[in-house]
Design brief:
Elements (H helix, E strand, L loop, with lengths): L1 H9 L3 H25 L1 H22 L11 H17 L1 H12 L2 H6 L7 H27 L7 H30 L2 H17 L12 H9 L1 H14 L7 H27 L2
């Protein structure tokens, strides 16, 4: 009986395990953020690409694109740029996980006395924080070229949160892809194959009414368009509590997270 009592006392409680898992996840998050901060090229390439897109569409294509119902093209453009920025930022998630799985880093980390979930959770949390920083930088750049929020602070915060949630959902897909394929070049090529069409065959940069009729069906119902339309309504001051695009986009994103988080965890467990 004494041995059983001693064994019971030695076993950590569920609350202790949860605290250790959170602590380990934060340590891994810090590790991943330090790598990003100590390699200036990561910061430059992460921020420079969306800035180029902002300037390119704002000053090169903006004069030739007419916004439905009138209004400023830069106000129409920026929600699409933010969604594209969030999606493209997830390339780093897939590539980093592919590199760490092939080089044995994940195996070494899992062999340490730490929560097994901390490696994947720390990666997703670090990339989410990195993504939020880049989104805020692009909002500042947008303001510099004429973009304005017309729905006050609540609309601005809502738009940023939807962009962040969209990026997290795409990061879950990227985590699954990186852990399932495990080859850096293949992961990067696969990311371009599905993220580029999703971004450009949408309402992110041009109205879908300008597309061929056979393409409009896909463009109008795919998640990128719904997310961009929801962000646009939040920024422009439309009555977002009744805006169907907002709830449809949230339903899409919730579905993506529910499906791909278990798939990513399953692939992570198979890494050896």
């Amino acid at each position: 009986m004494a041995e059983a009592a001693l064994r019971t006392r030695a076993e950590p409680s569920t609350a202790q395990l949860a605290r250790w898992a959170v602590s380990d996840t934060l340590v891994m998050t810090r590790r991943n953020l330090l790598v990003w901060m100590r390699v200036p090229a990561y910061i430059v390439f992460t921020v420079v690409q969306p800035v180029i897109f902002v300037l390119l569409f704002r000053y090169v294509f903006g004069g030739a694109i007419r916004v439905p119902g009138g209004g400023s093209y830069v106000d129409y453009l920026m929600p699409g740029i933010l969604a594209q920025t969030a999606a493209f930022a997830t390339f780093a998630t897939a590539i980093a996980l592919a590199q760490e799985s092939t080089k044995g880093v994940i195996d070494r980390l899992r062999a340490m006395p730490m929560a097994r979930s901390a490696v994947l959770a720390g990666r997703l949390l670090a990339d989410s924080l990195r993504m939020l920083i880049v989104i805020l930088v692009i909002v500042v750049i947008g303001y510099a070229v004429g973009f304005r929020f017309h729905n006050g602070v609540a609309g601005a915060v809502g738009m940023v949160l939807v962009a962040e949630l969209f990026g997290i959902a795409i990061a879950c897909i990227s985590a699954f892809v990186g852990l399932a394929i495990r080859d850096e070049e293949s992961v990067q090529a696969f990311g371009l194959i599905w993220i580029f069409p999703l971004t450009f065959v949408s309402s992110a940069f041009v109205p879908t009414l300008t597309m061929p009729t056979w393409l409009q069906g896909f463009a109008n119902e795919q998640p990128m368009t719904l997310v961009v339309n929801a962000m646009r309504s939040l920024a422009e001051g439309k009555p977002y509590p009744l805006n169907p695009a907002l709830w449809q986009s949230l339903a899409w994103l919730a579905g993506v997270i529910i499906v791909f988080v278990p798939l990513a965890v399953r692939s992570y467990r198979k890494v050896s």
